[in-house]
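ugh ok fine here u go
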Amino acid sequence: MKTTAAVLFMAVAGATAAGGPGIKRLDGTRLDVAEVDATVTRLMGAAEVTGLALAIFNDGRPVYMKAYGVRDKEKQLPLTPDSVMTAASFSKSTFAYMVMQLVDEGVIKLDTPVQQYLPRPLPEYEGYESLAGDVHYKQLTPRILLDHSSGFANLRALEPERKIAIHFEPGSRYAYSGQGIQLLQLVVEEVTKKPVEDLMRERIFQPFGMTRTSMVWQERFESDFANGYDEYGRSLGPQRRRTASAAGSMQTTLADFTRFMQAVAAGKRLRGRTRALMTTPQIQIASKHQFPTLSPETTDENKGIRLSYGLGWGLYATPYGDAFFKEGHDEGWRNYTVYFSKPRVGIIIMTNSSNGEGIFKELLETLLKNPFTPIEWEGFTPYDRLPPRPPLATHRVVSVDPARFEVYLGRYRFSADIVLSVRRQGDHLSVQENDEPAQDVYPESERRFFSRVPDDVLTFEVGVSGRAERMILHTGGRDFTGNRID
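structure:
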């Protein structure tokens, strides 16, 4: 059975023809294909967006699907609907849908404390040791983790000394947390005795025909994948993830994620009540911005749209009916999808550019006639309102005796779960975090090395033994120190 984007595109073309001329927008007006192309092309050029994949839904079905720009700027390879792209936090809503299948089957109950599903206390699990003195972890439930009211920071890496903490009474307010989704992944894997990679493949990807989607990188993706690009248009390459994370490791394509959204819209493989529960408000959102997640700043600006969170999806209300949405944000990748349940109109936007969010507002308002998106809360500042980009740091590669590199080779531990391995690559070094793809770094002095993309700088401290004892990583305006472990 063929499940390529070409087959889906034929179905899309047929749906467009059956629905009358053009694409129906929320207000009932119609947009022709030429207008879509002109709008997307103009905005991509103005905002310097490398590639963009777009799907539009009418009556619950995709009626437009097209990829624009390139997946590899250096080779001038076009982006296609079958190009594998980083889903980023689209992973969370997809994982949530699988979790709700387990809820349907009684394997997991939304309001049972997650501690009851674990064979030992949560603080005995790696990374959660810092919760030993905080009984609040016993209040955490699947519902609280799915609606982002756990009290966790977004990620443990953002905490001082990477120690997980619960910052407020669980269930009392919204604060987006990938860490909460990672905890739920741990629970699901303990309960089912299966890795999340297998669960997602068996319950979501295979049933919905998502043949080019996985929680980890697959060899078959090499035929057509997109590189991510930063704000300056520098290639970050693809994310060849080797470890599955429900919070953000999924790799997918426009064609495959379109299949998923169509399944969500129809409530496939879920009972009606369970599907409805996903898009029922669980927690109201009063925060001024979604990020930083723990900011105490609040606002009434989004009361008019009743901004809230369901189970894996953000929610808001409009005169055209209720909408559910999800973002995906990673370096080199900016994604957004929103679907209006009553008119059954929706959109998927996937970009391989850190500049992508700068055109979301105009795309949503022009292609859907949707002015209701909480743009400021989302942080989707339009491209023409952004401050000038700071100039890039300048680095100059210097010649260093390769024999000197020997004193730096080895592994450096930055936390309980992060180890950076340093290897020699001819006239430079490479650094690899755990089992993630290695990154090349080049000498700008005998002990200081830089990455061309992103702007990470490594400095080695050499001890009396003549070997490096520590590595200092400067990234994102912060310094992190790792001690040699071998």
